[in-house]
Amino acid sequence: MEIQAITNGGLVHKQVFLGHPSNASGSQDREEDSVSISYPATEVVGHGSFGVVFTTQINETGHRVAIKKVLQDRRFKNRELEIMKQLIHPQVVDLKYYFYETDPQGEVYLNLILEYMPQSLYQRLRHFVTQRSNMPRIEIKFYIYQLAKCLNYLHTHAKVCHRDIKPQNLLVDPQTFALKLCDFGSAKQLKPSEPNVSYICSRYYRAPELIFGATNYTVQIDIWSSGCVMAELILGQPMFPGESGIDQLVEIIKILGTPTKQEICSMNPNYMEHKFPQIRPIPLAKVFKREDDETIQFLSDMLRYDPTERFNALQCLCSPYFDELRQTDGQDPEVASVVQNLNLMDFSDQLEFDSLTLEESQAVKQRLLS
Ligand SMILES: Nc1ncnc2c1ncn2[C@@H]1O[C@H](COP(=O)(O)OP(=O)(O)OP(=O)(O)O)[C@@H](O)[C@H]1O
């Protein structure tokens, strides 16, 4: 779903709740957490599977925002809202406010007022593809680094799995190269003791354990999707363009080869007895002919069948592939200025390393900041 806005003059006045209420523990909507705002009325043009998104500017703050309107089932809390209220990170689209509306038929709608970003990564990539050119390697590196930073925060601090990482849900500003994750409509806090549905995530980006129908999957499914996104930015087209659920597995096997018994066991032990045709892997260096060793190695670390062998978000951040962003001596001044403006080397102990022991976090910091 893409968004557009047509302003038709009139001002809308709304009493809205703050996206991050002062009393973080309470999920009740409290009057003391509400403010009044106004914005020019906009006509909705884009429709998605769950709702509509339009854009406007808040009069009181001057902030450009995107308003996502979704049908709200009165019987349940909205999971997207509950998750977004908790998330505060530079690489997550910020929930500024929210409000409810009832239409003449009595249907309740939830409106999420979000920080605005000019483009999706999907649109950005199309820009290069239509020009028959490639996205510059350094631009890919800026985006994938921010995605890894975002997932490290989501997975370790917030314990949230996004479950729908794809270029359409990664919003970018091509002027600054900032990237922010949006659409938490499929996101969930995964608990090891509770099963989760496997029919989530958009087809091309689905981790193999989801295709195998696993219900005990982990946040590592987001890393697979991120590997697919990175591959797509390099290739200019999806790496595994499956035409159906099962064809998706065929596309993966065509490149990575048939998974071993142990890999299948790690994805879903129920498939152990299943016979798969034996296909040999194609080395990634052949698929990505013009990429250097670090890039190939990093892609293969993200695109592993076994979710426990697949890099986690922090391992991704530590990959030599990103050393170009960390280099201090002789770094290209343009790269250095993007790194500085986006605060890419800024880490908050509390948000980003709180799953590590003191020793581990010191070692990681040395790697990340050297
Ligand atoms: N904060 C934002 N700033 C700018 N554009 C946004 C923003 N949030 C969403 N969009 C645009 O709206 C599209 C749809 O948003 P989102 O994915 O949250 O809605 P959805 O109903 O879940 O859509 P879909 O059916 O594509 O899953 C995004 O792909 C993006 O193009």
Explain what you see.
It contains 14 helices and 12 strands. The protein has 370 residues and is an alpha+beta fold. The protein folds into 2 domains: 6-115, 2-Layer Sandwich (Phosphorylase Kinase, domain 1); 119-369, Transferase(Phosphotransferase) domain 1 (Transferase(Phosphotransferase), domain 1), CATH 1.10.510.10. α3 (137-158) runs antiparallel to α5. The protein starts with a strand and ends with a helix. Bound molecules: adenosine-5'-triphosphate. Adenosine-5'-triphosphate is lined by residues 1-3, 48-51, 53, 66, 68, 93, 114-117, 120, 168-169, 171, 182-183, 185. Adenosine-5'-triphosphate binds at residues 1-3, 48-51, 53, 66, 68, 93, 114-117, 120, 168-169, 171, 182-183, 185.
pLDDT average, as an integer?
Answer: 91
Residue runs with pLDDT of under 50 for 5 or more positions: none
What does the main sheet amount to? 7 strands, antiparallel
> Would you tell me which CATH topology of the largest domain applies?
Transferase(Phosphotransferase), domain 1
Q: What is the approximate shape?
A: globular
Number of domains: 2
Number of separate helices: 14
Category by helix and strand content: alpha+beta
**Beta-sheet strand percentage?**
15-25%
CATH architecture of the largest domain: Orthogonal Bundle
Helix content: 25-40%
The CATH class assignment of the largest domain is Mainly Alpha
Total beta strand runs: 12
Provide the spatial order of strands within the biggest beta sheet: 2-1-6-7-5-4-3
Write out the CATH superfamily name of the largest domain.
Answer: Transferase(Phosphotransferase) domain 1
**Helix and strand pattern:** EEEEEHEEEHHEEEEHHHHHHHHHHH
Bound compounds, each kind once, are: adenosine-5'-triphosphate
N/C terminus separation: 41 Å
Rg estimate, integer Å: 21 Å
